[in-house]
Amino acid sequence: MHATDSIHLHLSITPGTVHSIPSGCQLNFLTKEDTVAHNETQYITSRRLKRLYMIEAKGTFESDWSFDLLPTDCFWLYFQFIGHSQRNSMQHTALSHNEYQGFHSAGLHTHRIQLRAGKTWFVLLGIKTKDITDFTAEWPLLAKPSAISQPYFSSINIGYRIKQVFEKIQQYEPLPFSLYSKISCHLCELISIYHQDLKDKERLQQKEDIVIYHEAKEYISEHYMDEGINRDTIADHLGIGVRKLYRVFKDNGLTIHGAIQTIRLYKARELLRETDDPVDIIAFHLNFSTAKYFYRQYVKWFGHSPSKERELHQKSKKKRRKYQPKD
């Protein structure tokens, strides 16, 4: 067990002599005094610099391990350059090679970062955000969630812009006056990139959702007569999960069942106008559970009964014939 004012480490390391910081780290300005744990194959360091918190770990670990983030009222960016991790045992927080994610640590909640055995390299950068109003005014997509379990921020691949910022950070020395300003500036830059990445991902998601929505409606139009058509068969045909299909329809103000039923009701209106089939036969033909249920849904959707539909259609036909010009 090791602890600093930033982390509480759950890992047994027999420390060796810290002669120097390993080469190739992102936070090269951290010194031997910032080292939390160190041996020939494992290196973990942490420092608080005014409102900033900086943590880096790199090495090969023989078993799973974890640490607790101690600071609260912070916004964090977590960069997983190598390895796999998860926060608070929640699936939506899992990160793999070359991914990063943002999150808030707030109130009395402790955030435990769990890492898998094997090669690991990550960087955590945090900034105190007691006045969250100013923070979200600049980055509205990064507002605090209402619950710790809410899957509110997506993981993003670490792209070229992120790597460019870290290339600049790598060059800094542990200067006593200007280091805080430089790292603060770059952290704001990284947060802005993350905010833009989330925007881009949201925009791409919306485009994908529109395609899914129209493909699902097209499938329903072709298969509305199938007795077994439901959300599972539609999702399976589109190659997506049921939850995603449900969300896409919900975002468009519909349910999957409602979309299927709407198409069946319009087909029923067509059959009422063009055939003399009894109402109960049409209801059975279109896979409504009962004629009574069909009748009730028809009135609810069109504002009048199936028999009234035929009556109105017949009157309309007679009217058209009456005013049809003679040769």
**What would the average pLDDT be, to the nearest integer?**
88
Number of domains: 2
Report the top-level CATH class of the largest domain.
Mainly Beta
Instruction: Classify the helix fraction into a percent range.
Output: 40-55%
CATH topology of the largest domain: Jelly Rolls
Strand order of the largest sheet: 3-4-5-11-7-9-12
What's the helix count? 9
User: Termini, distance in Å?
Assistant: 100 Å
Description:
The protein is an alpha+beta fold and 327 residues long. The chain has two domains: 2-204, Jelly Rolls, CATH 2.60.120; 224-327, Homeodomain-like (Arc Repressor Mutant, subunit A, Orthogonal Bundle), CATH 1.10.10.60. Helices cover 41% and strands 21% of the residues. The protein contains nine helices and twelve strands. It has helices spanning 132-138, 160-169, 179-223, 231-238, 242-251, 256-274, 279-285, 291-302, 306-322; strands at residues 2-3, 7-10, 35-38, 42-49, 52-61, 65-69, 74-82, 85-87, 99-105, 111-115, 118-128, 156-157. It has a seven-stranded antiparallel sheet, with helices on one face. The N and C termini lie far apart (100 Å). The mean pLDDT is 88.
